[in-house]
């Protein structure tokens, strides 16, 4: 079997790597891919958002399956377009991907079907949004409705900054059309857990839990990023919590999507906050998370190719897999300045010094020229380790990251600090 993976980050590197483990998979190709991915999968220069280009590539290369990994092409309807062109594709339809691409859609869904989440209201008018903020007071959370690369969320400790956030989103249109509506939410507190689930619209099965570190700097300081590191499993996420989440969140969400005529077939990422009142949904994503995938897939004891085919055929109940009783950690090495301004094109050295028994390196933003890797994005590399204990996994990842160098490299030194 030959598979095309759409995307080009650390998540896609981990997906390509895991698919290649399957005895049924002969070849994986990737578009646009990156320098690291090109070492295991031939990469093609087609943008992840170029639906026609991706269909042409899938046809020219005669692939058996297309795996659409990132949120943007999913919410633009790439899977629907592939299916219409007669190409087998994995990922939710455009309608189902709304669970991620529209916060008002997902919040309304949760309200209608009694799925626990923060209280909220949706506004199109800046004035009305501001009146609501004043009536509720701080702390309060302001979010752009649409996809804003994880940057459209303002957690405000005072009313003033919440009012400014409304202006930035609705009036200044800082996130473009993603800011046509604004969601104002109750502030929640507690540990955050990422729960990735396989879902074929009839069956939903959780993967092992994980925890992400979204802020750029140590001590959870600085701006929100796509994720600076992660570990799995989360010690906070007990079997008892899993049982509760399955009953009150996972199954009700799948059933709600069926009732709304948006059956969800793909990876459902449930962002949870474990509050004093119980687990509540922070957000849904319609895809594998990044960097969570880089810690979850190394623990998957099973054939990813089999599982995604079972999802497409709505036979997930028959798929057999489990998760290793091990711990994994990833530390993301980013370009200095990320997520704001950063340089690209810096030479990366030391990758050849990585002890492969201790860590794997998933590439996120790299290119390769004459056998030499260069930086090409904000998040550059994810150094991942799997060990018996979390302490060892973190130690291994950190011991190996020290070998790698590029100008202005930045990584957090406190990933999983509470677990060490
Ligand atoms: P989101 O993109 O919706 O996951 O939000 C990004 C981050 O903002 C989350 O990971 C949380 O840390 C924080 N956040 C979002 N919503 C809330 C909320 N209602 N209360 C507290 N923190 C929140
Ligand atoms: N790490 C968060 C996300 O993938 O959205």
Quickly describe the structure.
With 420 residues, the protein is of the alpha+beta class.
What can you tell me about this protein's structure?
With 420 residues, this protein is an alpha+beta fold. The chain folds into four domains: 2-91, Rossmann fold (3-Layer(aba) Sandwich); 119-186, Dna Ligase, domain 1, CATH 3.30.1490.20; 192-323, D-amino Acid Aminotransferase, Chain A, domain 1; 327-419, Glycinamide Ribonucleotide Synthetase, Chain A, domain 4 (Alpha-Beta Complex), CATH 3.90.600. Helix content is 29%, strand content 28%. The protein contains twelve helices and 25 strands. The protein has helices at 10-20, 51-60, 71-75, 78-84, 94-101, 103-112, 126-136, 159-171, 239-259, 292-296, 304-312, 390-401, and strands spanning 2-7, 27-32, 42-43, 65-68, 89-90, 120-123, 140-144, 153-156, 182-186, 192-199, 204-206, 211-212, 215-217, 221-224, 229-232, 266-275, 278-285, 300-301, 322-323, 327-335, 360-363, 366-369, 372-375, 379-387, 409-410. Strands 12, 15, 20, 21, 24 and 25 form a six-stranded antiparallel sheet that branches. A hairpin with a 3-residue loop joins strand 13 and strand 14 (221-224). Helix 5 packs across helix 6 (103-112) and helix 7 (126-136) packs antiparallel against helix 8. The N and C termini lie far apart (42 Å). The model has no long low-confidence stretch (mean pLDDT 96). The structure holds adenosine monophosphate (AMP) and glycine (GLY). Residues 150, 212, 226-227, 285, 289-290, 292 line the site of glycine.
């Amino acid at each position: 079997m030959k598979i095309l993976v759409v995307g080009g980050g650390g998540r896609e590197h981990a997906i390509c790597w895991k698919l290649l483990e399957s005895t049924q998979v002969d070849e994986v190709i990737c578009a646009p891919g990156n320098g690291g991915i090109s070492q295991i999968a031939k990469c093609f220069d087609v943008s992840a958002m170029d639906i026609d280009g991706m269909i042409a590539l899938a046809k020219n290369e005669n692939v058996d399956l297309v795996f659409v990994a990132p949120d943007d092409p999913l919410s633009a309807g790439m899977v629907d377009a592939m299916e219409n062109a007669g190409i087998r594709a994995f990922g939710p339809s455009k309608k189902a991907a709304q669970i991620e691409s529209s916060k008002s859609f997902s919040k309304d869904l949760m309200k209608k079907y009694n799925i626990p989440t923060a209280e909220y209201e949706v506004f199109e008018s800046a004035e009305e949004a501001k009146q609501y903020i004043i009536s509720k007071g701080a702390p309060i959370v302001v979010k752009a409705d649409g996809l804003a690369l994880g940057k459209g969320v303002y957690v405000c400790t005072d009313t003033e900054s919440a009012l400014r956030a409304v202006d930035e989103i609705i009036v200044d249109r800082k996130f473009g059309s993603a800011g046509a509506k604004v969601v104002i939410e109750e502030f929640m507190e507690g540990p955050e857990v990422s729960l990735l689930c396989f879902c074929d619209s009839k069956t939903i099965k959780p993967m092992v839990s994980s925890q992400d570190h979204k802020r750029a700097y140590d001590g959870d300081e600085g701006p929100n990023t796509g994720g600076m590191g992660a570990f799995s499993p989360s010690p906070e996420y007990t079997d008892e919590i899993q049982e509760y989440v399955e009953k009150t969140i996972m199954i009700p969400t799948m059933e709600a999507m069926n009732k709304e005529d948006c059956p969800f077939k793909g990876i459902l990422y449930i962002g949870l906050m474990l509050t004093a009142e119980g687990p509540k949904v922070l957000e849904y994503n319609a895809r594998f998370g990044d960097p969570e995938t880089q810690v979850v897939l190394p623990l998957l004891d099973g054939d990813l190719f089999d599982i995604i085919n079972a999802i497409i055929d709505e036979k997930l109940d028959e798929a057999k897999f489990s998760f290793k009783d091990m711990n994994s950690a990833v530390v993301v090495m980013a370009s200095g300045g990320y997520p704001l301004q950063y340089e690209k094109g810096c030479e990366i050295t030391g990758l050849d010094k990585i002890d492969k028994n201790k860590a794997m390196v998933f590439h996120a933003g790299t290119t390769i020229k004459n056998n030499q890797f260069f930086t090409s994005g904000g998040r550059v590399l994810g150094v991942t380790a799997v060990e018996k204990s979390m302490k060892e996994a973190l130690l291994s990842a950190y011991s190996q990251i020290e070998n790698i160098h590029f100008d202005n490299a930045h990584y957090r030194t406190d990933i999983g600090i509470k677990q060490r």
